[in-house]
Amino acid sequence: MKIPVAVPTQPYDVVVGRGVRREIPALIAERAPRARQVVVLVDEAIASQPWCDIEGLVIPIAGGESSKSLAHVEQVANDLSRRGVTRQDVLIAVGGGATTDFVGVVAALYQRGMPVINVPTTVAGMSDAAIGGKTGVNIAAGKNLLGTFTQPAGVLCDLDTLSTLPARDALAGEAEMVKCWLISQRPTAGYLAAAFEERLEHAIALKAQIVAADEREGSTRALLNYGHTLAHAIEAQFFEGVDAPRHGEAVSMGLVFADMLAARLGRCDSSRVEETREFLRHLNLPVTVPRHLDLNETMSFMYRDKKAHGGLTFVLTGSNGCEVVADINETLVRGCLETLMEESR
Ligand SMILES: NC(=O)c1ccc[n+]([C@@H]2O[C@H](COP(=O)([O-])OP(=O)(O)OC[C@H]3O[C@@H](n4cnc5c(N)ncnc54)[C@H](O)[C@@H]3O)[C@@H](O)[C@H]2O)c1
Ligand SMILES: [Zn+2]
Questions:
Q1: Cross-strand partners of 57
Q2: Partners of 314 in the β-ladder
Q3: For the chain, which has fewer Cβ within 10 Å, the N-terminal or C-terminal residue?
Q4: 28-61 pLDDT, tens per residue?
Q5: Which domains does the chain have, with CATH numbers?
Q6: Residues with catalytic function
């Protein structure tokens, strides 16, 4: 399956299927014909998996959320320089969303930019992170606050790689596909009846369509942040913690929160909140927030969200589907958080 991402700057395809990592040489011949070195930056946690057989200069790098730092970008850039890598060469990012986000920053900055091909190996990566050109690393002030819009030269979603993905990560990634399904206003029963490939294809196609229309998030692309304002605020408090929720788990909490807020603002019926909650619960995704969350810190992270310009801004459902809603009353937002924390006791 091939889904085009028709961004004006650099159109490319997302290819999905078993064994599609073998298309890398053909893609390089087409998109980076002058490359002399193929540098495979792979999450070290998966570098020795049997399917991890991509040929080139293989450099295992730290993966996971804590690897998304500017210090790590500098370390990898120094390594590339020592090995004589130039911007005519090509990077292959192999790993989950943390790895493609991180390698995206390296590719955007090293020698002012070089091509990167993404080979996402998680559900979150295939359905979301590896597509659309948002790259990013974290700083203490928040997640993904340093980054660029830099499109990959191609995305190869090799379903073989998912064979080793832990169940918790596979489930967490499901939350991004659920998000897309809800944005499209599709009935939840249809999601449960659909095969994995169909849910993945729907998420990729929706993201491709939205990104092509609004590459730099001037308008509609912000809709993909449905559930994410709270998710990022939760994740930011757990950067290094062993009990840190997965990104998708935080998104699941954020979806319930966003619908509750929408209902309290009169934008939707309270039955919508129950439907979303039941749907996520049925999938075994979390529907309450951690009870030890720091409420004030959560609010402060949400005020600093990238969508916001001063006030509290969320993507909320309504009679016209999802919309960006700005300047929401703080007491209302706190009230929803308190309810979800109370429910987790
Ligand atoms: N740029 C974007 O548009 C965008 C969109 C969504 C999410 N993200 C980012 O993506 C990240 C979350 O994605 P993720 O859940 O893929 O995170 P991740 O990269 O941290 O991967 C999750 C875990 O799975 C392991 N793993 C990866 N592939 C594996 C495989 N095939 N087999 C076994 N283990 C494997 C990793 O080592 C890691 O421990 C967050 O940093 C989030 O901010 C970015
Ligand atoms: Zn996400």
A1: 39
A2: 325
A3: C
A4: 999 999 999 999 999 999 999 999 999 999 999 9
A5: 2-164 (3.40.50.1970), 169-343 (1.20.1090.10)
A6: 112, 134, 176, 207, 217, 221, 225, 228, 232, 247
